[in-house]
């Protein structure tokens, strides 16, 4: 759309069909008088279709200072004489004596001509004008004259394509700068996402013999370090849209020579696994670049849960959260337990480090007693003086192994029970002068193992952890959140299949992973380094990012601040009103299909020009029929989203190798 392609303004009128004149214009709206004949010649005027209004005609010589007003049809308008014409119709019908119209006594030519005229109310979307050898689109009307007579045309074909894919020169330059800042090598061309579709009934503007599908493309940089909403009822194409966006980001990564990690919170298992609704799981398409996680042991999936024996702090953090949520932190010994720290001190501080090893061994013994399944051949190891070992053996009534050489968890249980009892009788001596081997923090752990304290009063002890083993997996050896972040840094697609497992576990693990991504990327940024590019996809987002969340919580912060740390958030939900308002307010890209109630529509209508599509969104339930607003797009485009084609994407990958 520049001077190298001819005269842009006149090109917009190529194949355009005249449909009438404006009879009233203001800064926001234009009212158009049209005629049934002109409508027919233009192949109809669908609701929400685009129109041009201009004071010059295409056969005039172009001077360079002309302008074209871009309109969108929003509803029918009433002409001043409409009431008289309605009375004429009613009188005519009342005079009929049968259901068949008497052709000989039909309307006279003058009346028939008047009846064919009607009005359209249109929204002003902006003004096209020619400047510095480029086509520009202002988002309003600079001025208008009440006496002007503007001819109105319905654009088709290439003209519509130019409209819906228009990016102004400033935004185009910014997009290139964004790509360069993100590390993209060279210019990535826009990707097709679908085709223009105005209405659910698309017989004339899409399926007629002389109709043609007009492609809708998106700028790839619009979705990097941005927020994207995918809204709509179940079975209206949200999952297909997510797959399309994953493919777009993957193509940017491949063609731009840039690593972009993608994390998908797959609540229904439809991205990790092939299903009948959408052909091809993402894991089957991007075989070499996809890592899948699940909360249950499944071939082809990595374990999502935490190993409490190995990941001490991560596991203990879950214990602290769960005990607090269950209201168990009321007894003194429970408060003392949850206030423990298992941070490892420097090995050079031998005494402190050994006391830490004793506490860890006692904590791992508590896990064993609480039915946390240990890894194979797991043992604990710590040092104890000969005096302490002698007292413990006497209390146990047997010669127990030296703990410095390792104890099985069963042996550790016996050892620590005996140590607790011996210490109650007479404090076990420390290796240092005048000290005690059992300090206050270790005493809490010993009491939980023995289920008693002080004079022998019974306590629940390790049994307070009875509901927490479901969060534990003996197979994991590293922090799952840190491991996932590592995959994202490498540019992999990570799918968290959360279709199975406890709902509370899903929520907690989801939050832990999101926190790790946010704070790790923030550390990159704060330390003057470039954070990795990460895109996070959240299905059923209202379950994770509810509107009642505080702005200091992870998800609202990620949505609001993540962009500067190169984190993209793509969230899908059926309920606009359930989303956090801060996230909605910071969303740059919108893909909206059918919504089934007026309350959701009213919420959506507060953003951009979605109000123009309120009736259509409520009525049209067609799968994939979306209203799309992107960062680069100046207005909402009614679009039929293309069906995700796994074979085409696999062919692209094969050719790129």
What's the quick description here?
The chain is α/β, with parallel strands linked by helices.
How many helices does DSSP assign? 21
Helicity, as a percent range: 25-40%
The description of the largest β-sheet is:
12 strands, mixed
What would CATH call the class of the largest domain? Alpha Beta
Shape: elongated
The fourth-level CATH homologous superfamily of the largest domain is P-loop containing nucleotide triphosphate hydrolases
CATH architecture of the largest domain: 3-Layer(aba) Sandwich
Unreliable residue runs: 1-6
Q: Structural class, judged by helices and strands?
A: alpha/beta
Strand order in space, largest sheet: 9-8-23-22-21-10-20-19-11-18-12-13
Query: At the third CATH level, what is the topology name of the largest domain?
Result: Rossmann fold
**Mean pLDDT score, rounded?**
88
Q: In percent terms, what proportion of residues is strand? A: 15-25%
**Total individual domains:** 3
Report Rg. 34 Å
Would you count the extended β strands for me?
23
């Amino acid at each position: 759309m520049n001077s190298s392609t001819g005269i842009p303004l006149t090109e917009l009128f190529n194949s355009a069909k005249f449909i009438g004149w404006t009879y009233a214009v203001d800064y926001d709206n234009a009212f158009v008088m049209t005629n049934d004949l002109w409508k027919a010649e233009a192949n109809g005027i669908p609701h929400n279709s685009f129109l041009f209004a201009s004071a010059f005609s295409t056969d005039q010589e172009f001077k360079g200072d002309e302008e074209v007003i871009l309109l969108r049809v929003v509803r029918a308008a009433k002409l001043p004489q409409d009431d008289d014409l309605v009375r004429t119709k009613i009188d005519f019908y009342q005079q009929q004596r049968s259901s068949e119209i008497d052709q000989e006594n039909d309307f006279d030519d003058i009346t028939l001509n008047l009846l064919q005229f009607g009005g359209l109310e249109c929204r002003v979307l902006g003004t096209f004008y020619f400047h510095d050898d480029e086509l520009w689109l202002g988002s309003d009307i600079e001025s208008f004259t009440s006496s002007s007579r503007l001819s109105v045309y319905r654009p088709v074909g290439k003209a519509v394509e130019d409209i819906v894919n228009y990016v102004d020169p400033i935004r185009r330059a910014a997009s290139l700068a964004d790509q360069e800042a993100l590390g993209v090598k060279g210019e990535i061309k826009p990707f097709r996402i679908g085709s223009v579709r105005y209405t659910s009934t698309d017989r004339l503007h899409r399926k007629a013999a002389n109709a043609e599908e007009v492609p809708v493309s998106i700028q790839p940089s619009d979705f990097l370090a941005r927020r994207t909403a995918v809204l709509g009822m179940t079975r209206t194409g949200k999952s297909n849209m997510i797959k399309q966006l994953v493919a777009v980001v993957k193509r940017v990564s491949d063609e731009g020579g840039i690593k972009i990690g993608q994390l998908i919170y797959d609540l229904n298992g439809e991205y990790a696994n092939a299903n009948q609704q959408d052909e091809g799981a993402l894991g089957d398409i991007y075989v070499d670049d996809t890592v899948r996680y699940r909360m249950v042991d499944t071939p082809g999936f990595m374990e999502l849960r935490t190993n409490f024996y190995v990941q001490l702090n991560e596991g203990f953090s879950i214990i602290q959260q769960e005990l607090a949520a269950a209201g168990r932190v009321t007894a003194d010994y429970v408060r003392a337990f949850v206030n423990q720290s298992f941070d490892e001190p420097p090995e050079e501080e031998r005494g402190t480090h050994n006391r830490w090893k004793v506490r860890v061994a006692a904590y791992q013994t508590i896990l064993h007693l609480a039915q946390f399944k240990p890894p194979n051949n797991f043992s604990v190891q710590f040092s104890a003086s000969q005096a302490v070992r002698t007292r413990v053996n006497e209390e146990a009534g047997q010669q127990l192994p030296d703990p410095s050489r390792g104890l099985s968890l069963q042996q550790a249980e016996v050892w620590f029970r005996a140590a607790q009892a011996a210490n109650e009788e007479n404090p076990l001596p420390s290796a240092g002068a005048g000290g005690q081997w059992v300090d206050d923090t270790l005493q809490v752990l010993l009491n939980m193992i023995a289920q008693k304290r002080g004079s022998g009063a019974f306590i629940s002890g390790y049994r307070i952890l009875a509901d927490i083993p479901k969060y534990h997996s003996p197979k994991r050896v590293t922090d799952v959140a840190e491991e996932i972040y590592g995959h994202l840094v490498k540019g992999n697609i990570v799918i968290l299949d959360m279709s199975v497992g406890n709902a509370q576990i899903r929520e907690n693990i989801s939050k832990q992973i999101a926190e790790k991504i946010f704070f790790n990327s923030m550390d990159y940024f704060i330390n003057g380094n470039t954070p990795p590019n990460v895109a996070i996809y959240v299905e059923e987002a209202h379950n994770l990012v509810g509107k009642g969340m505080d702005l200091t919580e992870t998800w609202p912060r990620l949505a609001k601040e993540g962009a500067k740390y190169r984190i993209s958030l793509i969230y899908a939900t059926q309920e606009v009103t359930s989303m956090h308002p801060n996230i909605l307010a910071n969303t740059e890209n919108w893909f909206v299909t059918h919504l089934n109630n007026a309350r959701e529509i009213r919420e959506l209508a507060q953003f951009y020009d979605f109000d123009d599509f309120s009736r259509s969104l409520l009525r049209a339930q067609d799968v994939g029929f979306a209203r799309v607003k992107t960062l680069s797009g100046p207005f909402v485009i009614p679009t039929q989203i293309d069906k995700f084609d796994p074979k085409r994407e696999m062919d692209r990958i094969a050719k790129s190798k």
